[in-house]
From TrEMBL:
The keyword Cytoplasm applies. It is found in: Cytoplasm. One of its GO terms (cellular component) is cytoplasm. Keywords: ATP-binding, Cell shape, Cell wall biogenesis/degradation, Cytoplasm, Ligase, Nucleotide-binding, Peptidoglycan synthesis. Residues 109-324 form the ATP-grasp domain. Its cofactor is Mn(2+); Mg(2+). Belongs to the D-alanine--D-alanine ligase family. PANTHER family: D-ALANINE--D-ALANINE LIGASE (PTHR23132), D-ALANINE--D-ALANINE LIGASE B (PTHR23132:SF23). GO terms for molecular function: ATP binding; D-alanine-D-alanine ligase activity; metal ion binding. It is an enzyme of class 6 (ligase). This is D-alanine--D-alanine ligase.
Length: 334
């Protein structure tokens, strides 16, 4: 089968502290996915830039392996899938609708609550001096339409109205989009990787984010600093623990919650879901990631491959599984 690997290549000239292209993939990841696909298929690389349509038409693939994060705007992750749906070309992962929904954190929260799923209370703020209906601090301030921890820094957790206004202003000015302000949950944090479709959704071993690995003064969140600045190959943070040390009851609760969320957003093939416990130990969904990151090496601390490894899968096995799930959906012979 001929597979086109669609991607956005992260510029190498951008300094690490600049989060503009944090969602895009580096060459090492693109080549790792290409090599995994090439074990079974003919592979062509397609950069998802302004010429992507002509490149795809020329390549004439049987399937697109979609890693593309899109170009600009609040629904950028949906841009390539929308084009592929228009061209009637099969692709891995979720639909344009689901990817657009997943990147809009407020819309995601509305859908989750419509399905009776817990998520922290939140309000969208368009102005720094806008009234905030959330009654108690601390609060979490983040951009409404970002992923990969973009716009989430240590200062994003605020404990008073002055800091709240300051962080909302920072989001408005830096990211040119509204801020989502949420109740900050003080408990443990987990990320849950899922593979499957419909009623057949497998929950991989749960990953815990251990904030004790951060320096003493750090706020206990998986911020941009923690993900991209402090955790380096030269000085890796021992921040992920998989499988998480949790009792059977919590494991079952997380699995059931995430399966329901997967179906509520109509995810396809794969998704990663971030969950945090409140002060009473009850889990709530922070974010949905229907286009999950898949950095190839263990020292890169990429949650989905780590969870897959604990489930007995190699990196190539994981990529094969996603392709197989997509082929099954489209009734393609892979």
């Amino acid at each position: 089968m001929k597979i086109a690997l669609a991607y956005n290549l992260k510029p190498t000239s951008v300094p690490a502290w600049d989060d503009t292209y944090a969602e895009w993939d580096d060459l090492e990841t693109i080549e790792a996915v290409r090599d995994a696909l090439a074990a079974d298929h003919e592979v062509v690389l397609v950069e998802a830039d302004a010429r992507v349509e002509s490149r795809i038409v020329q390549a004439a693939p049987d399937l697109i392996f979609n890693m593309a994060e899109g170009w600009h705007g609040a629904w950028r992750e949906a841009q390539l899938p929308a084009l592929l749906e228009h061209l009637k070309i099969p692709f891995t992962g979720s639909s344009a609708r689901t990817l657009a929904l997943g990147l809009d954190k407020a819309a995601t929260k509305r859908v989750l609550r419509q399905h009776g799923l817990p998520t922290p209370d939140g309000v969208v703020m368009h102005q720094p001096d806008q009234a905030c209906d959330l009654s108690s601090f601390p609060l979490m301030v983040k951009p409404l339409y970002e992923g990969s921890s973009k716009g989430i820094w240590g200062e994003s957790v605020v404990s008073n109205p002055v800091d709240l206004r300051r962080q909302v202003r920072r989001v408005l000015e830096r990211y040119e989009q509204p801020a989502l302000v949420e109740t900050f949950l003080p408990g443990r944090e987990f990320t849950v990787a899922l593979l499957g479709n419909g009623v057949h959704v497998e929950v991989l071993p749960v990953v815990e984010i251990r904030f004790s690995a951060l320096h003493r003064e750090a706020v206990p969140i998986y911020s941009y600093e923690a993900k991209w600045l402090w955790d380096t190959p030269a000085r890796p943070l021992d921040i992920f623990h998989c499988p998480a040390e949790i009792d059977a009851a919590l494991a079952e609760q997380l699995a059931a919650l995430c399966r329901r969320a997967f179906r509520a957003l109509e995810c396809r093939d794969w998704c990663r879901i971030d969950v945090r416990l409140d002060a009473c130990g009850a889990p709530a969904i922070l974010e949905m990631n229907p286009l999950p990151g898949i950095l190839p090496h263990a020292d890169s601390h990429s949650c989905f491959p780590q969870a897959a490894a604990q489930a007995g899968m190699t990196y190539t096995d994981l990529i094969r599984r996603v392709v197989a799930l997509a082929c099954e959906r489209y009734e393609l012979s892979g």
